């Protein structure tokens, strides 16, 4: 925005002297400040941000627990990947330096590792997708299922190997594993035994390079080599004068290297290796009969035979290693083929929902597997028919859906760009759309783009969005990416986020997430104590905590986070055990969540639960210190009432717009009547549960015990908490932590007495008691709270407010926070800056103009 000087957001007569000051204020204010600037610009007519209304849209995140069969498949798959990693490490030790760099192998390993388990997560949600789709059809709605990958590449590879007729659908994970092992399993080079002739040539070259050979012998060998080269040449070489005057070879005399007697050259034998000349009788044993041209003296023959034997033994060992490696590779491939792995989700969903006759497929793939008419197998066929070209098949399928001939549509990113699938008033099919998301894209703008296929203008009804996630901690990685991108899109998507629940709860890849991960790693590596009790452990049982740390450490080793590497002979990392986490991984939340996918569900969820508990602790601390940037925060309570008349505290001289101070009274409490009625309803649904009910704290806080109601949470093993002072807690608590800090109350009379006492006391004082240093300004644990919000035109007085807040003693009171609050009586909604009670007088004094709004 630095070039947009004419907007008048900074400069003379504004709250910011220059763009640098404006930028600094926005950076301090965070996402909430950016939202407020966008709203301020809209109010003054400087900014238009058109977006489709989200009125009527329903948004829900659906938790899909793994079914027992899928749990078993996942566990065995995770164990296989861990064993495959060990096997690849072992096989890599046989690779010579001439082989490709092993780092490429591990990049491919982890890329396929992530892709494999993402396929498994998708397949785990198929039963839930089918169930929700059939339920929507019963409710006279139609269904749109969104995904990203179709598995076409794996299908085409399988078709090329197995043919067009198959017994069952292709398993994408299995084909992915087979391809990875077939193409990347480290095999040593296949040894080849050299012929005897090449061995003798090697021996001859060795003799030529031997320094202790006599000068005469070396000269003779050089002459012999020169003669050999001359024979092979097609060109005539110049003959020097000494050669012209010499005698012919037949008349030449040479000296025997054994007896030193001169003899005709043709009567002497010459060794083909060392080149020495000898009489046939001088050799032991003497040479009898005709001798071949590549004759070797006894000494050279002995050395050559020894070398050949050693070479044969070496080649035999290499052959044995190679055969062993090939055997292990084939064994791994057989194990992969025997694994029980799920089918391609896209083909599976279409098959379970009635086949291509009932499901409109709008994707980028060219062919698909269809169950045969007798139901005994599947066959591959192209998606288009003779009447529809491949280029028009998606538009044809889309029209069948819009005409109501097919009530289920499956869309992918590649095939759905620009396609309108909303309940268009002009279309025959105006049933309400239920948009089920099987797989989220990696970016928020792409997610919104796919959501927009079913939410467009001129629609008869708004869609229902259902985002499906498994209860696996590692899958939160994909939600984390989209959640992070949604938040960074800023004011343009705030309208989307106001419509209902957002994915912000799944954004773990933040500054707080990085800190939480580092604390988890340091705790697992026993460099420091864990800040929270691990799930499934008790604080007073150190052996349980130690056992968890041992299991956690083993799990992190198995997925390569704790590096098991030592230096090889060439000084490079060869992949053996050292037991450390490299610095770059200490803050890499994405890698942590990726690798979690490769762990068995139990330890995966325990590690993820520990990570989330540490993250919640850090966020809670940041919230108490006033360092948490949550964008525009909704202030919710059971009762929100406007206290008195709003006050005008500033009027802009240019636009005439006002800045107004609103004072609200919030009642955040949860009465005994409401709590007991809620428990009674839950006990009807969950008969026999020994966990849900009322609890009291084991420890006293300032002489008082605290009470709460625990009900089943959204995740298995977690519980929603309701307190008399603050109502429903933001964070669900694991069972282990609940039982560690609280004890269940069997007597309803005791629970009622404690609950009502805490409810009454919290209306007058905070949880720190009557001697709190902040007095009435402290709101921690206080049921009745007074909230001051500065609304209307805020940007012109931003600097004044920031200066007034900077004078406050508490750090949490110095931060500018943007809030949204809605009264429970007349549903009046106000968005503005939250002014801490302790800072109200200072802010009003600096603004120096207070005026009651006239009725």
TrEMBL record:
Keyword annotations from UniProtKB, A to Z: Metal-binding, Zinc, Zinc-finger
PROSITE patterns to which the protein is assigned, alphabetical: ZF_PHD_1 (PS01359), ZF_PHD_2 (PS50016), ZF_RING_2 (PS50089)
Main location: plastid
Acidic residues bias spans: 233-249
Gene Ontology cellular-component terms listed: nucleus; plastid
GO molecular function terms attached to this record: chromatin DNA binding; histone binding; zinc ion binding
Domain PHD-type span(s) in chain numbering: 253-303
A single GO BP: regulation of DNA-templated transcription
Region: Disordered, residue numbers: 187-206, 219-249
Ranges of compositional bias, category Basic and acidic residues: 189-202
Cellular localization per UniProt: Plastid
InterPro entries the record matches: P-loop_NTPase (IPR027417), SBNO_a/b_dom (IPR057332), SBNO_Helicase_C_dom (IPR026937), SNO (IPR026741), SNO_AAA (IPR039187), Zinc_finger_PHD-type_CS (IPR019786), Znf_FYVE_PHD (IPR011011), Znf_PHD (IPR001965)
Superkingdom, natural source: Eukaryota
Annotated RING-type domain residues: 256-301
Family: Belongs to the SBNO family.
The protein's name in its UniProt record: Uncharacterized protein
Source taxonomy: Eukaryota, Viridiplantae, Streptophyta, Embryophyta, Tracheophyta
């Amino acid at each position: 925005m630095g070039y947009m000087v004419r907007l008048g957001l900074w400069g003379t007569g504004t709250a910011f002297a220059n763009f640098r000051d404006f930028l600094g204020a926005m950076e301090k204010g965070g996402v909430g400040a950016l939202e407020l600037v966008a709203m301020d610009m809209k109010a003054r007519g400087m900014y238009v941000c058109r977006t489709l209304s989200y009125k009527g849209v329903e948004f829900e995140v659906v938790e899909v627990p793994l079914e027992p069969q899928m749990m078993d498949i996942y566990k065995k798959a995770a164990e296989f990947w861990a064993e495959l990693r060990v096997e690849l490490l072992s096989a890599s030790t046989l690779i010579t330096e001439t082989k490709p760099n092993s780092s490429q192998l591990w990049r491919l390993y982890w890329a396929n590792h992530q892709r494999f388990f993402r396929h498994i997560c998708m397949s785990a949600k198929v039963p839930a997708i089918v169930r929700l789709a059939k339920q929507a059809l019963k409710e006279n709605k139609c269904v749109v299922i969104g995904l990203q990958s179709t598995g076409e590449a794996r299908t085409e590879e399988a078709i090329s190997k197995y043919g067009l007729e198959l017994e069952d659908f292709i398993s994408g994970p299995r084909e992915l594993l087979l391809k990875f092992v077939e193409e990347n399993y480290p095999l040593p080079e296949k040894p080849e035994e050299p012929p005897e002739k090449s061995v003798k040539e090697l021996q001859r070259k060795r003799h030529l390079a031997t320094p202790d050979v006599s000068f005469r012998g070396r000269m003779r060998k050089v002459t012999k080599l020169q003669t050999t080269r001359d024979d092979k040449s097609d060109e005539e070489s110049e003959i020097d004068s000494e050669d012209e005057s010499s005698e012919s070879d037949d008349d030449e005399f040479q000296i025997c290297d054994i007896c030193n007697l001169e003899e005709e050259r043709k009567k002497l034998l010459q060794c083909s290796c060392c080149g020495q000349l000898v009489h046939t009788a001088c050799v032991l044993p003497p040479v009898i009969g005709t001798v071949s041209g590549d004759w070797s003296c006894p000494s050279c023959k002995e050395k050559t035979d020894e070398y050949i034997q050693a070479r044969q033994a070496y080649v035999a060992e290499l052959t044995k290693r190679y055969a062993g490696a090939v055997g292990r590779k084939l064994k791994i491939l057989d194990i992969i083929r025997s694994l029980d792995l799920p089918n391609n989700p896209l083909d599976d969903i279409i098959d379970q929902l009635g086949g291509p006759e009932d499901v409109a497929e709008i994707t980028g793939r060219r062919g698909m597997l269809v169950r045969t008419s007798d139901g005994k197998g599947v066959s591959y066929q192209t998606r288009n028919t003779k009447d529809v070209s491949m280029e028009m098949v998606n538009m044809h399928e889309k029209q069948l859906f819009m005409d109501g001939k097919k009530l289920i549509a499956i869309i992918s990113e590649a095939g759905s760009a620009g396609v309108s699938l909303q309940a268009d008033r002009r279309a025959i099919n105006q049933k309400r759309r239920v948009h089920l998301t099987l797989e989220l894209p990696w970016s928020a703008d792409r997610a919104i783009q796919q959501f927009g296929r079913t939410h467009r203008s001129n629609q008869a009804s708004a869609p229902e969005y259902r985002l499906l996630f498994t209860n696996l901690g590692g899958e939160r990685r994909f939600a984390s990416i989209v959640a992070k991108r949604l938040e960074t899109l800023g004011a343009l998507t705030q309208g989307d986020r106001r419509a209902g629940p957002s994915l912000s709860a799944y954004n773990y890849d933040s500054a707080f997430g990085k800190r939480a991960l580092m604390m988890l790693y340091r705790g697992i590596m026993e460099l420091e104590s864990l800040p929270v009790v691990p799930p499934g452990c008790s604080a007073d049982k150190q052996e349980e905590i130690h056992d968890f740390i041992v299991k956690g450490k083993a799990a992190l080793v198995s997925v390569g986070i704790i590096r098991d590497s030592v230096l090889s002979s060439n000084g490079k990392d060869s992949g053996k055990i050292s037991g450390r986490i490299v610095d770059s991984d200490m803050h890499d939340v994405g890698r942590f969540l990726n690798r979690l996918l490769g762990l068995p569900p139990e330890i995966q969820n325990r590690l993820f639960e520990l990570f989330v508990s540490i993250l919640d602790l850090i966020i809670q601390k940041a919230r108490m210190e006033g360092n948490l940037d949550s964008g525009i925060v909704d202030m919710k309570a059971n009762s929100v009432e406007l206290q008195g008349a709003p006050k005008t505290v500033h009027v802009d001289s240019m636009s005439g717009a006002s800045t107004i101070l609103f004072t609200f009274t919030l009642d955040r409490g949860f009465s005994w009547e409401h709590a007991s009625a809620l428990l009674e309803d839950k006990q009807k649904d969950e008969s026999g549960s020994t966990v849900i009910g009322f609890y009291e704290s084991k420890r006293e806080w300032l002489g008082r015990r605290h009470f709460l109601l625990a009900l089943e949470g959204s995740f298995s093993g977690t519980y929603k908490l309701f307190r008399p002072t603050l109502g429903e807690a933001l964070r669900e608590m694991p069972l282990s932590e609940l039982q560690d800090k609280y004890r269940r109350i069997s007597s309803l009379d005791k629970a009622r007495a404690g609950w009502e006492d805490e409810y009454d006391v919290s209306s007058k004082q905070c949880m720190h008691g009557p001697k709190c240093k902040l007095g009435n300004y402290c709101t921690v644990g206080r049921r009745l709270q007074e909230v001051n919000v500065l609304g209307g035109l805020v940007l012109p007085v931003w600097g004044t407010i920031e200066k007034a807040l900077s004078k406050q003693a508490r750090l949490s009171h110095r931060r500018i926070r943007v809030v949204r609050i809605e009264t429970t009586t007349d549903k009046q909604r106000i968005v503005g800056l939250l002014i801490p009670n302790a800072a109200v007088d200072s802010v009003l004094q600096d603004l120096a103009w207070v005026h009651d709004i006239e009725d």
